[in-house]
Write a structure and sequence with these properties.
Layout lengths: L3 H8 L5 E2 L5 H11 L3 E5 L5 E6 H9 L10 H4 L1 E2 L10 H11 L3 E6 L2 E7 H24 L1
Parallel strand pairs: 1-2
Antiparallel strand pairs: 2-3, 3-4, 5-6
Length: 143
Amino acid sequence: MDTVRDILQVKGNLVYTISPDSCVYEALETLEERNLGALVVVDDAGHVGGIFTERDYARKVILKGRSSKETIVQDIMTENPVFVSPDTKIENCMQLMTQHFIRHLPVCDDGKLAGIVSIGDIVKHIINQKDYIIENLEHYIRS
C-alpha cells in the first residue's frame, strides 16, 4: 500500500502557513490567492499550533457574527490537529479523515512540518494508481 511519502514526492512539500496572531481576514486572503482550503498555524518559533480551515471561518466567524478583520486566527483555529508521518499509509489517512471529519492532514517528519495532504490529494493518488493498473492489465490482455 502506498504512503503519504508517495503523494509528497509528486505534490511537493510546500506548506502555506499563517501566524496565530494574524487576523482572519489575512488568512482568508491567503486561502483565496493560493486556492487553498487550509493553512497550518505556526508560531514564530516554528511550532505548529493548529490548522485554520474554511470550515473554521464559516462556523466560528460567520455564524457567530464576528468580524474577519477583528478576529485573530488563534481564536478560531482548530487546535491539536491530527498529524500523519510520511510513512503513514494512504488507507490510514482515509480512515483518519473519515473518523475526524477533516479534509487536511499536516505531515510531520522528525518533529518538523514536512507537508500537508488533502482529501483531494488522496483521491487523485488513488485514481492515478487505478488508472496505472488498468493500463497494465489492458496491455497484458492485448499481448
